Amino acid sequence: MKARRTHRNAPAFRWRVFFLLGVLTLIALALLARAVDLQLVEYSFLSGQGDARFTRVVSIPAHRGVITDRYGEPLAVSTPVDSVWVNPRQILRVPGAVRRLAAAVKIDPQTLQRDISSNTHLDFLYVARQLPPPRALRIKALGIPGVYLSREYRRYYPGGEVTGQLIGFTNIDDRGRAGLELAYDPWLTGIDGEKRVIEDRYGRIVQDVDSIRPARPGRDLVLSIDLRIQYLAYRALKAEVEEQRARSGAMVVLDIATGEVLAMVDQPGFNPNDRSQLLPNLYRNRAVTDVFEPGSSIKPFFIATALETGRYNDQSIINTSPGFIRVDGHVFRDEHDLGPVDIATILGKSSNVGMAHIALSLPPQLIWTTLHAFGFGQLATEGYPGEAAGDLSDYKDWRPIRIATMAHGYGISVTALQLAHAYATLGDYGVERPISFLRVNAPPAGRRILSAQLCRELLEMMRSVILPGSTAPLAAIPGYTVAGKTGTAWELRDGTYDQNAHTAVFAGVAPASAPRLAAVVVLRDPRNGLYYGGDVSAPVFSKVVGRALRLMGVAPDEPVAPARAVQMASLQ
C-alpha cells in the first residue's frame, strides 16, 4: 500500500523539480541579461554617474612670475599660502562645528553661522583666505567635518616701501592692481592647470586620476631698476621730505644712454605687504601720475629753441635792465637788476626778465614744436597705469603774456618722469630714446630732435647753475661736473596761485662732460622755511646721483680741491 502511494506521487515530484529548475534557470538568465545590460549597454551612463559622485576636476594654481631688479634681486615673489573653505551642508550637520571653526579662524561665530546658513545651496564657500600654511594645517588638524584647504599664492615684496609705488601690488587673487604689477599683469600671470581626482564621501582627495592640463607659471620680469640706486633715492628723498615738512616728493633717475629707469621713488610711501595701507593717496606713483608747473626748470628748452633759430649763441648778450619787463600789463621782475648778461648767466641766475626777452622773440610754433619734441604734453611711457600727459596748449592760442609766463615755468604742466626724460634727451646730445622699465641689453634706436653741437653748447651753459653765487651750488658733486636747472613755482589751488605753497624742483645730468645719468627731484609744498629748488631739491640730487655714479664705476671728470672735497663730503 505504501509502495503504491510513492509510485503514484513520483510524477508530481518530478514536475516540482522541473518547475524549480526552470525558475532558477530563468532567474539566472535574467541576472545574466542584467549583467550584460549593465556591463555593455548602460556602462557609459553608470560610469559617468559614478564619476559625477566621486570624481572631481580641481584647479592647480599657477605661480605668478617673479619681478627682479636688473641684477636679479627679487622685488616681488609669490609665496604659497592656504585658504580655508567649507561645504555649508556638511558642516551644518554637525552640532558645534561652526562655533569651533569660528574660534580657529578668529571670526565672530554669529557672523560665520549667518554666512554659512545663507549659502547652503553652494558646495564651496571661502571662510579665510591666504593663511600661512602652518596655521592652516592646525585648522585642518581639528578634523571639523566639511572644512577643507586649498593651495593659493600670495605676493610678497622684499623691498617693501622702497619700491612700493613703482612695483604696485596684486589683489587677493594674485592679479595686478597697481604699478608695474598691473602694467605687466598679462606677462606675469600664469594659466591655472586642472586635474581629475577621486574624493571620498567627505570631500577628501584619495587619488589623483589624471592630469587634464598642467599649470603654466607666469613669466619672470627683469626690470631696469637698480635696487642700490633705488634705495639711495628712497632714503635721501624721505629724509628731505621729513626735514622740510613737505607734503610729498618724487625722484626719477634715468640712464641717458638706454632710457632705462634706474630709480623711481615717492613720498609719502607705502608698504604693499600691509594691505591696510592700500589707499589711493598712498600707493599712486606721483612721479608718473602727478603733474606740476615746473618753474624755471623749463628754461633750458626755451634756450634750446633760441639756439636752434641761429639768432642766439653762447656769446649772445641780453639786456635785462632795469630788472623788470612789462608784458600785456603784467610785470615780471628779477631779484636784482643784472644788466646786460649772456645766456649762461640768465640760466645761472634764473633771470625771468632775460627769459621773457628771449621767448618773446621766438616764433610760437617753433617753441611748441621743440617742447613737444622733448615729450611735453604727451605720455612718456607706453601704458604705465594712471600716467598723466601734462598740459602743453596749442601755440595758436598763445598771447605774449602766455609765452612770457611759460618761459619761466607757468602755464605748462609736466610730470617728474616727463621732465627727467627731457633732460635725458639733452644729455644724449639731442637724441630722444624711449623710456624703459625693463632691462635692455643694448641702447634702443633713438630719434634725433636737436643737433649734438647745440646740446653741447646748452649743457655747457647749464653748468653755470651749479657755480657758487648761482641758484644751485648744493647740487654740485665732488669729482663730477653737473649741468642742471632749478625750478620754484607757486602751486595752483582752486584756480588761483597760493603764494605760501611752492613746488621745488631740481633737474640735471652728470657728468656734464659726458652725461650718463639724468635725474629730477620734486618737493611739493615744503613748510619748514626753505622752499627754493636750489635749497631743498638740489641736495637730494647731489647725494643720490653722486653715489650712483660711483656705484656704476663712472670715472670722475673734474679734480676736487682738498678743502672743497671735505666740504662737499659733509653734504653727501
Descriptors for this entry?
Penicillin-binding protein 2a (Domain 2); 5-stranded antiparallel sheet; elongated; 22 helices; alpha+beta; disordered C terminus; Beta-lactamase; 2 domains; 5-stranded mixed sheet; 21 strands; 572 residues
CATH topology of the largest domain: Beta-lactamase
**Domains (count):** 2
| Sheet with the most strands, sense and barrel status | 5 strands, mixed
Compute the number of helices.
Answer: 22
What is the CATH first-level class name of the largest domain?
A: Alpha Beta
Look at the structure and name the CATH superfamily of the largest domain: DD-peptidase/beta-lactamase superfamily
Proper CATH architecture of the largest domain: 3-Layer(aba) Sandwich
Shape: elongated
Low-confidence stretches: 563-572
Specify the structural class. Answer: alpha+beta
Average predicted confidence as pLDDT? 89
Strand element count: 21
The helix content is: 25-40%
Measured by DSSP, the beta-strand proportion falls in 15-25%
Tell me the distance between the termini: 137 Å
Report the C-alpha radius of gyration, rounded.
37 Å
Walk me through what this model shows.
There is one protein chain. The protein is α+β, with helices and mostly antiparallel strands and 572 residues long. The strands form 7 sheets. Strands 2, 3, 4, 5 and 10 form a 5-stranded mixed sheet that branches. A 5-stranded antiparallel sheet has the order 12-11-21-20-19, sandwiched between helices. The radius of gyration is 37 Å and the shape is elongated.
